[in-house]
Write a structure and sequence with these properties.
Elements: H1 22-25, H2 28-34, E1 41-45, H3 51-64, E2 72-76, H4 79-92, E3 101-104, H5 105-116, E4 127-129, H6 131-144, H7 157-170, H8 174-181, H9 189-206, E5 208-210, H10 211-224, H11 226-234, E6 238-241, H12 249-258, E7 265-269, H13 284-292, E8 297-301, H14 309-320, E9 341-345, H15 348-364, E10 372-376, H16 383-391, E11 396-398, H17 408-421, H18 426-433, H19 441-451, H20 468-484, H21 491-509, H22 514-529, H23 534-543, H24 550-555, E12 563-567, H25 568-571, E13 576-581, H26 598-612, E14 615-624, E15 626-629, E16 633-636, E17 652-653
Parallel strand pairs: 1-7, 1-8, 2-3, 2-6, 4-5, 6-7, 9-14, 9-17, 10-12, 10-13, 11-12, 13-14
Antiparallel strand pairs: 15-16
């Protein structure tokens, strides 16, 4: 039997004194998290408790205590979040923090796959499909199987994309997804199985990966090639994950793989703010973290720096109704504050009048419109309010809607860039060709087969009998692509050539509103001026789409920054001086479908918790007592079960009183109750969010 020899760990390195005063800059709970020893740590961070600040100090602490910044991985859900944290950490400590590997799961996996693509049989320059592109591929495959002529109940392309995406990121068989979420399509199970395989084959054949593939194929790479997993994991001495409650099955598995060698992983999140189940987020991940990483230390952040205690008391009460949760109690040092208000209105028009009037009163008191938000479960809940705001000339911006790179005219332009980068990109060719007059789906399919064949110069028209109806358009397209693809042409010049070519097409195809679309093309040109090379630019657009379109920019260009209307989902992470939560009805919040699903019902409760914790000083929860539906007529509503029965000390009932005719001199007219704080309250200057 071989003799055992135990290697002792290296003695701790001598580090210079710490630059930052961690104990002085952070509260005790934040300090414990920021300076926690290595190993697995779960930080349960309540709303408004300084989660980002804690992560920034954690980054600085790791760098100060000797961890090479290149061996720290910060995983977030947006590039902007990672960039902000690294910038603030660098400003707090020094430039070393900017060398931390920070970005989204998808971007991190993309970098790994680019380096190791051949190990999976992928071309090095594979193309990334966004959700809309994936849907277009599925539409092509659906048509090829003749399914476009099938019964009308067969799922459309975006539904197909959602079904296949859910199966991948949740790790479930197609039949399970159908039974759970799409029972109306169970009769097509075998056909959908075949179509799913067609989709996988098509992507492999054309060098394409969709969003889910970036995660799934990275896990496959690690499983098939443990040496690659160990090589990547060895470079991840410390793994930090933001918003862990929003991870899906694939992302949680990737965190485990990244931490395989060193085991130093800190996940920060709030189970009470897990509201993205519809995107594949798995609420169970944050509870399974201690099981996935034995020996996990669970730390909590409960000291709130955003809201008054009456608002937090309501938030704590709401969260107390959850069936599964990490126990926590939000508290603040801020004294005073009025209790949140519960305001029943006769109907949606009265609800809208109330909101508009209080908004105007608050503005008179000095609260900027941009510091006031109206939140709702669904965009349709705000229609009456939009009419009332327009009637009173109150400027507002409504969140939700298309991002720049999801707009049709921008996708057209991006398709041209994509074929410059990857001439085999059949999805992009399909979009480009059908913009040309005289070319429909069948002709486009024939041309794509020719274009994606192996050819020395993919942008040269060879001797081939093209139909007269489109030959000139095809020549103009190829001349533009060849000119843009010349060696040494910088990206901005490439985009300028493409925009000049595309503008007449834009005018023809989108003639109703092309002036506004042309503004977006100018915006796109400006983005290209500050981008790197073409591949990096395309990757950035696919992984983190730009959010501002000219239509939105126009709404924000008023002299006065506008009132914010937003779905609760879109408002997560934001904060406002005053918040209205409208249409707090059973069947709305919670939604009707959630009433039959305990997990979905719990998520709806968390949605209300998120809405409540957006408010700093004032919170109004409103609902109409009468609603109208086309086939039901007018009917009495029921307030949301989440607020029904809440003690009045936590949620103060208000009554709307219609102002009557002019009163006699010795009588005071009835008043609509004013906002908490009264007309003499100190104005709140606020900060832009």
């Amino acid at each position: 039997m071989a003799r055992r020899f135990v290697l002792k760990p290296d003695p701790p390195a001598d580090h210079p004194p710490l630059t930052l005063d961690y104990a002085g800059d952070l509260n005790p709970q934040q300090h414990a998290a920021a300076t926690a020893p290595g190993g697995p740590v779960l930080v349960v961070a309540g709303a408004g408790t300084g989660k980002t600040r804690t992560l920034i100090y954690r980054l600085a602490y790791l760098v100060e205590t000797g961890t090479p910044p290149e061996q720290i991985v910060l995983l977030t859900f947006t590039r902007r979040a990672a960039r902000e944290m690294l910038t603030r950490a660098a400003a707090l400590l020094d430039g070393r923090c900017s060398r931390v590997q920070g970005g989204t799961f998808h971007a991190f996996c993309l970098a790994i796959l680019r380096q190791h693509a051949p190990r999976l049989g992928l071309p090095a320059h594979f193309t990334i499909l966004d959700a809309a592109d994936a849907a277009d591929v599925l539409d092509v495959l659906r048509t090829a199987r003749g399914l476009h002529r099938a019964a009308r109940r067969f799922p459309r392309k975006r539904t197909l994309q959602a079904i296949f995406s859910a199966a991948t990121n949740r790790g479930l068989a197609l039949e399970e997804i159908l039974a759970e979420s799409y029972p109306q399509f169970e009769a097509y199970r075998d056909t959908l199985d075949a179509l799913q395989q067609d989709y996988a084959d098509y992507k492999q054949r054309h060098g394409l990966l969709d969003y889910d593939d970036l995660l799934h194929r990275t896990l496959t790479l690690f499983e098939r090639h443990p040496d690659v997993r160990d090589q990547v994991s060895a470079r991840c001495r410390h793994v930090l994950v933001d918003e862990y409650q929003d991870t899906n099955r694939l992302q949680a598995a990737l965190v485990t793989q990244f931490a395989h060698v060193h085991g130093n992983v800190m996940a920060v999140g709030d189970d009470a703010q897990s509201i993205y189940r519809f995107r594949g987020a798995d609420f169970r991940n944050i509870f399974a973290f201690p099981e996935r990483f034995p020996g996990t230390r669970v730390l909590k952040l409960e000291h709130n720096y955003r809201s008054t205690q009456p608002i937090l008391d309501l938030a704590n009460h709401v969260l107390g109704r959850a069936t599964r949760k990490y126990e926590k109690h939000l508290f603040t040092d801020v004294r005073g504050g009025e209790p949140p208000a519960l305001v029943p209105a006769p109907d949606a028009r009265y609800e809208a009048r109330f909101v508009a009037q209080v908004v105007l009163e608050l503005r008179e008191q000095g609260v900027p419109l941009r510091r006031i938000a109206v939140l709702f479960r669904s965009s349709a809940n705000a229609y009456e309010l939009e009419v009332e705001l327009n009637r009173r000339n109150i400027p507002f911006v409504k969140y939700g809607g298309l991002k720049l790179s999801e707009a049709a005219h921008i996708k057209d332009l991006v398709a041209h860039l994509r074929v410059l980068e990857n001439p085999q990109d059949a999805v992009a060719w399909n979009r480009i060709l059908q913009l040309l007059e005289g070319i429909g789906p069948k002709t486009a399919a024939d041309l794509i087969a020719w274009l994606t064949a192996a050819r020395d110069d993919p942008f040269r028209l060879e001797e081939r009998p093209f139909a007269p109806r489109y030959v000139e358009a095809l020549k103009a397209l190829f001349e533009t692509l060849r000119a843009a693809r010349q060696p040494g042409v910088p990206l901005p010049a490439q985009v300028e050539r493409l925009v000049a070519y595309y503008e007449p097409i834009c005018r023809r195809v989108y003639y109703e509103d092309y002036p506004r679309r042309l503004q977006d093309l100018e915006h796109f040109l400006a983005l290209a001026e500050h981008a790197g090379d073409r591949a990096a630019f395309l990757a950035s657009l696919a992984l983190d789409p730009v959010e501002l379109t000219a239509l939105e920019a126009e709404a924000r260009a008023d002299d006065e920054p506008p009132l914010v209307l937003s779905t609760i989902h879109s408002a997560k992470g934001l904060e406002f001086n005053t918040v209205f939560v409208i249409h707090a009805l059973d069947g709305v919040l919670p939604s009707g479908y959630a009433l039959k699903d305990p997990d979905a019902l719990d998520e709806e409760l968390r949605l209300l918790y998120v809405a409540v914790t957006r408010a700093e000083e004032r919170l109004f929860i409103t609902y109409p007592m009468l609603r109208y539906q086309r086939y039901q007529g007018e009917y009495l509503t029921r307030p949301s079960r989440f607020i029904d029965g809440v003690p009045e000390r936590l949620l103060e009932p208000w009554t709307l009183v219609e102002e009557g005719p002019p009163a006699l001199p010795d009588a005071a007219p009835p008043e609509l109750p004013g906002p908490s704080g009264g007309p003499d309250a100190e104005p709140d200057d606020g900060l832009p969010f």
